[in-house]
User: Which sequence fits this backbone?
């Protein structure tokens, strides 16, 4: 049985995404679509694969909502998390927000090497895309990677130490955190139906998307592929 | 483990509701709410029960959306099914509609005893409520139960045989079915989050609701109670 | 201004659908998409039409959710109403259900001509489709239309008079109504975003759909077309 | 008529929220709830107010979804915007994200006085709450307000100038923006039903909420109060 997939994790965005729970399979889609016939199948055959393709092609989406996944994202930058908030129709999430996360930062020293687990630090800096204002140029890195990294690290260190100074002055966390860099890492539990999850993959695994988010979409696809391969394929093909 | 609960069924409305699948437990709620602390608990303790009560009381509902159930309803009248369509936020359903169901009726003979599995036949006829136009008087039955039953059965028999006559004339099913009695039975797969399920129970398990729907709400509560008892109790108490 | 469109009605399914209220226009879509530029346009130009096409083609759907319509359906059969319940994501509806409607039937006499406003009575009976079990053969009517109509009317009359007999015996309405024919007419208020409305039109205005529902989809398209023609065209083309 | 309310704005969080559009009123709620009676009222009376109270008290929420508002938020910090993403059920939003906003910053000079319209700068710094880790102590300010402000401004200036240095090195915007302080201001169009809007007000206008968000909740309440005062009052009272 595939229940052993629960707990599988893939590294993304120098954090990781874990398949924390799920229910259903390709068979759940088939059984839901055939509910009026009064039989529950326990094994897939060719006819079932055809049915799944038919449902996706004709946008009969309701059977694809009985398969549900829960993902836990840890150490993923806020920028990435925000994309998931936007796929909330048919989804639910619980976010460990900055406010709470801040309580655990007391232990973090001022040196940036130690921030590493707390802020997203790119290993490579990509060039700006020439025509698309919102994208990077695939595969092209800036010449001065070290210089970029030094500026980046220094900015995070400065932001974080300013945050701590404000706390020392007695400023409330909800105001002090406003100067923290947006690259702080977040934790998130995201529950979504098969339909919503594949919709996210479709929208985010393409050229125009930010690389970090594209990587997340690919990791999620990899995690759920063994659970309902026929449905995923049919849904991905249906809107092309 | 509670996974053995999958497949449990309870009879309602002379049909039945089955817990076909589920994921999560009280621990899922707790772990989602504490996602930023980076630890997943595997056993509940007193603090966790308190946290669940706190979340429900303060309407932090998102952690309750990571527990999800799939119910299959068979032999349940359309009137009851329609109530579930209305709780679709955070839910999904696949209905075996009349149209398809009709295809299996070819085997049903004209005698009403044989309709029994296809139409909802009340065993007892309740009196109209004196003040509430939309309800029945709890526990009070009409004097002439046999007479009521005869009228009811005759009406169903007449509706169904007229339907068959129209089909014989070559009338399309989508028009012929318009004269079928509303008591025909339906099959339905309903997937809903813990939050949505408890919201349904809260709205339907009370005096003003139709008895058949109230019975369904109670059956559903019974089916899910062993899975996340603390969350259900906390949510039911939170809006009183 | 287009606000004078409020109140426009189109006859469908021997009932009617009215545009009861709406907000927004093509300009709302454009202004939402350009919110970060801090200017609100008050007149459309070529660039805006291009932007709308781009948004639809790339499935940036959120700007299309700021245009919202309210439709009131009266005298429309329950079968048609049910299709709208299914498009509830991003929608809301309030249904005048059978239960309440029943209270106004006291004035209706037993003669079927008088049912006419209360039940859906087809003027023409279509033939069953040869290969598609769920559809009618477009444009082909049964030979014996009068005979079909007589059976249909008689079935409705029988169902309705049985319903009244049960009420006379003191049976509660919620049980008595179970023998009413499914063709009873309903009233419904349906509020949906532009995205959800066009999605409904797309799914229902095609060959496989029941004619009555297809007619509703077409009527709704006609009602909203003057409000945001560019968005509707772009959305209808985007998923082909 | 109240349509002249469109365009009304209230300042919040050193930005502003504008009622950009709306449809419906208390009468829409009443007419939706009474759809089956076939009459549309055009004036409220005592019975209608009672009906609204009854609907809210018994959680018949669907009639409250036919009143819809569109708000435009400008110059509001990302932290505040994020709260609105979470009320997406029954809502829609279009966010002018950082990425796009960045394109307009080329004109902004390096001096912090000129950032003022681009980042949220508190005029007063509140003390941390003694027991509630997530809140500030109402009405209590830190002693050294000027010092706090200097640290805050310096941090923003440093973050922003680092961002510009990375762009000069050719780093793509999607990576460079990761070091920007979270206090950057955003623009957002938010469309929500009356039900969802009041739910947001209820959750956010209370002691535990961040002051900036509480102020937004209050501003939104003020903007919509003239449109449907009875419904707002009934909904706010219903869950106490």
Assistant:
């Amino acid at each position: 049985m595939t229940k052993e997939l629960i707990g599988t994790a893939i590294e993304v965005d120098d954090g990781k995404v874990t398949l924390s729970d799920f229910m259903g399979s390709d068979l759940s889609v088939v059984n839901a679509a055939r509910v009026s016939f009064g039989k529950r199948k326990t094994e897939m055959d060719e006819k079932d694969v055809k049915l799944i393709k038919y449902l996706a092609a004709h946008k009969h989406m309701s059977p694809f909502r009985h398969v549900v996944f829960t993902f836990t994202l840890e150490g993923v930058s806020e920028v990435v998390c925000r994309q998931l908030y936007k796929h909330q129709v048919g989804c639910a999430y619980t976010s460990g927000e900055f406010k709470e996360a801040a309580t655990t930062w007391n232990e973090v020293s001022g040196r940036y090497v130690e921030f590493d687990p707390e802020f997203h630090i790119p290993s490579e800096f990509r060039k700006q895309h020439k025509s698309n204002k919102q994208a990077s140029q695939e595969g092209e890195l800036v010449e001065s990677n070290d210089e970029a990294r030094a500026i980046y690290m220094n900015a995070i260190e400065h932001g974080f130490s300013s945050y701590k100074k404000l706390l020392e002055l007695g400023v409330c966390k909800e105001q002090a955190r406003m100067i923290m860099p947006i690259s702080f890492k977040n934790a998130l539990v995201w529950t979504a139906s098969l339909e919503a999850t594949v919709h996210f993959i479709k929208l985010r695994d393409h050229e125009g998307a930010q690389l970090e988010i594209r990587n997340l979409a690919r990791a999620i696809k990899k995690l759920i592929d063994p659970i309902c391969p026929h449905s995923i394929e049919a849904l991905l093909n249906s809107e092309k």
User: Anything to note?
Assistant: The longest helix of chain D spans residues 145-168.
